[in-house]
Amino acid sequence: MKIEKAKTSRKGSINYSNLGFGKYFSDHMLILDYKNKTWEEPKIVPYQPMSIEPANITLHYGQCVFEGQKAFMGIDGKVRLFRLDSHYRRLVNSSRRMFIPEVPEDVYKEAVKRLVDLDRDLIPTEWGTSLYLRPFIIAMDNTLGLKVSETYRLMVITSPVASYYEEGLNPIRIEVNTQFSRVVKGGLGEVKAAANYAASLYATQTAKQRGFPQVLWLDGKEHKYVDEVGTMNIMFVIDGTLITPSLDEGTILPGITRDSVLKIAREWGWPVEERRIAFNEVVDAYKRGVLEEVFGTGTAAIISPVGELHYEGEAMVVNDRKIGPKSQKLYDTITGIQYGKLDDKFGWLTVI
Ligand code: COI
Fold first, then answer.
1. What is the pTM of this model?
2. How many angstroms does the Cα of residue 112 sit away from the middle of ligand 1?
3. What b-and-e string marks burial along 320-333, b requiring 16 or more CB atoms within 10 Å of the CB?
4. Lower CB count within 10 Å: N or C terminus of the chain?
5. Which of the listed residues 299, 302, 334 should we mutate to test ligand 1's pocket, taking the one with most ligand atoms within 8 A of CB?
6. Residues 59-102 pLDDT 10s
7. DSSP letter string over 180-224?
8. Among the residues of 80-235, which ranges form H helices?
């Protein structure tokens, strides 16, 4: 692996007391090019702009995928990457669906670990903060013909971050969208393709103008069943049972935090259901007073409680707009594992 170290560090220009999300970037980035049917040797170079031709095919047709993963500065000063293996596997699944060649596992994992190690001094230390890694692969052919590219670039940039939403752990308001479709069955919903996020922008922006930072998407055909929020998977606690949409329809992202929550909840013996959920069932639970908690799960979002769901002009207030006991316990447990306070009994951490 070729490594060119940054001559000066960006650390001094990072406001660690107001990190926000994705505003600051670390000193180095990883580049891995695919040419002549081979992934070349990875390079780590100082974070910098890159030049691409206006005819770059990704700019026109969007053949690209991405990941979001995190490294944590533990309470013992050790740096831990969360679920490196699962993020690699999901990147490969997304790549296959977009006809992008698979990045070799050992090359990817070694390069990511090296990148995090190089910028370990920039990792924030406060609880709730982390180094967010953004691996992405873009097609690099230059042509206006619509086709599968023959060249690609994988990059990993990293960003010291705090919570994704301004609200932090305070519950957010969500609007249930019944007008547009983000994904449909057989589409790209189950992979991390940029296209899914682009498809959510119009509805999310107009919802923001009405005071809702996020949108809950229902199925793309009937607008009847719950899919996910544009930035995270969604979970409900109804009458003591943790319920979340199953992956079977292929319309939601197989979230790694979603999977972590389900594994932890099952280990605790909580009643858990992964299945199709008609949104009317949520409305009905609300009316019966048994919609106990609603929260989102995601790498960026961690566990994000939802305090209000707006559906067809009606507001459903959840748990008095406060974080519920189950959401809090899950947040404490997941972050406890990530910062090395709790035992890594699932083997999710890679110490760097
Ligand atoms: C993540 O949670 O890592 C994501 O990629 C979602 C994105 C909207 C920040």
1. 0.97
2. 18
3. eeebbebbbebbeb
4. N
5. 299
6. 999 999 999 999 999 999 999 999 999 999 999 999 999 999 99
7. --S--TTSSTTS-BHHHHHHHHHHHHHHHHTT-SEEEEEPTTTS-
8. 84-97, 105-118, 194-209
